[in-house]
Amino acid sequence: MTMNYSFIRFFLCLTALCWVPRGLTAQTADDRVVIDEATETYRYVVAPNGDVAVKHEQETTYELTGNLSEDVQPYVFYDDIITVDKASCGSLKADHRAADSEEVFHDGSKVCYFNATLTPKHRRLTAHFHRTVTDARYLARISLQDSYFIRRKTLTFIIPTTLSGVRTRALNLPPERVSMTAALVGSDSVFTYTVTSLPAWKSEPLAPPYMQVSPQILVTGIFPDYHALYRWGHELAQVDTTIDGIDSLLHVITAGCTTPRERLANTLQWVQQNIRYVAFEAGLSGHRPDRPAAVVRKRYGDCKGMSLLLATLLRHQGFDARLTDVGTRSIPYTISQCPTLAAVDHMVCAVMHDGQPPLLLDPTCSYLPVGYVPQHIQGREAMIDDGADCLLYTVPTLAVGLSVDSLAYDLQLDVDARWLEGQAVYAVRGDMKEYFMTSYERSTMSDKTELLARNLNADDRSNTVSDVAWRDADSRHEWASFEGKVALGHAVQTVGDDVYVELNPHNNLFALRLDTLRRRSDFELPLECCVVRTVRLHLPEGYTVELLPDDFALDVPQGRLSCTFEQEADAVLFTQRMLITSRRIARADVPAWNRSVSRWTDACNEQIILKRKP
């Protein structure tokens, strides 16, 4: 199981069984290779002891559509759960190597592939692969897309009638592109899906989660319900939790703590800051947590290993800490709706106390404090360890306003120099805190102070920033903040006795115009949040406010865009807000989004006018 801050690093199920493409693209004139025909057969086999395996046969025919030769690489993945029994592609010899992943520290899977070339004289080739999924529980989802356009694809599931609960379902496919037939053949139920004109995948930035939009076949029923799913995972989690020297370690971790809440916060922070998050996705390592002692020794772990370490440290202090499986927001169905490994992709630690709702702690989020639940699990179902069974718990959804990105200027106006100068404070809370702090820590800049300064300079290189320093970067605290002195140019103009000042700081996070010229998928903004930019301009002596621009507010499907101009006793306060309550922007709606952002930006850019007193 994995969790990605993306930021956001989720995905569990079956990367070793299927390629995980993202996005959609139709067949175009640039498609020099297509898949003309693809067939896959999944035959379920029940052993005498009741174990269920799946025999998988795959045949794919590639066709050259252009007049230039093209290289292709037919391939399949395998690991400790999936074996490759046979592979053929004409006279070519199969190659094998470890499967690398940019998002996963250790996958453990391997790839079997052929290096082939299509030419104008030999336009077609067919690759065959036979594999065995030795445990059918790992076959929870089959991706249908490929890196090539597929003209026709047929998938057949042959399931003994003794496995009467096992069912299949197509997801994210329009009805006109898929047909399904069901038949009883001897003692087997046979389900056949035929898919036509299946677009190739295309990875795009700011795309919706793959699971929510990808054409796929779900397989349910191997686990009859979520209770059985929990018991299977609970048994895997029974690993040695002994940590040598745990008392000495906790003495260091909890030094200076006077309350249980402080000990809880310090313990969470120690795991967050001392254990590097990595992902383990293939085979059993994608489901069984590592031993806490091993995580401490190696100083890295995945969500399961980090959560079990946290639970172990807390239990030793007397807390009722429990492992908790959860399906993140990237999954379009819940655990109770679809009790399979495809419905669970993350693990956290739940602390039960005084009959209060469970306190969920996610150690993979390095900067979130006790009491804040990250957005990727808000509103989702979770299975909290309760011994022989689990507590099915719906994670609460927090107010969007708890995730804030705030930049505040307190400025003086030098009329003669046509310059604004003063203090700037940048503050982040909730998921925006995790978002910013993670990006800051991962920055490769040699001088990270410069990175902070760039966030205070209003994205204008003519401005200067100095004396930048952290106010608070403690992960245990609700807010993280830093400050600096700023001097802003190009914001002041004078005409006679009138002074024109533009107060918009031009730092509109998530408000860039979106390009749809080559876009294939919808857009999804990184987070639900409130982005606030404020400027308090103290009036120079001898000047009064001649004109304040009109306030502006616009409701959009994604939230609300607004700005206000207020006069105080000796100052003007400009406030700009972007409230994001829904992250998705359908591709067809992008022009409307761009127009809304432009209107909002224009309103924010209106100048105030100051006039010298007579």
Describe the structure.
Helices cover 15% and strands 39% of the residues. It is globular and about 100 Å long. The protein starts with 32 loop residues before the first strand and ends with a strand.
Strand order within the widest sheet? 25-26-24-23-30-34-33-32
General form: globular
What fraction, in percent, of the residue positions are helical?
10-25%
- Determine the N-to-C terminus distance: 70 Å
- Overall radius of gyration: 28 Å
- Which blocks of ≥5 consecutive residues have pLDDT under 50? 1-26, 101-106
Count of individual helical segments: 9
Number of beta-strand segments? 36
- Which secondary-structure class do the elements indicate? mainly beta
Compute the average pLDDT. Answer: 90
β-strand percent reads 35-45%
Oligomer: single chain
Biggest sheet layout: 8 strands, mixed
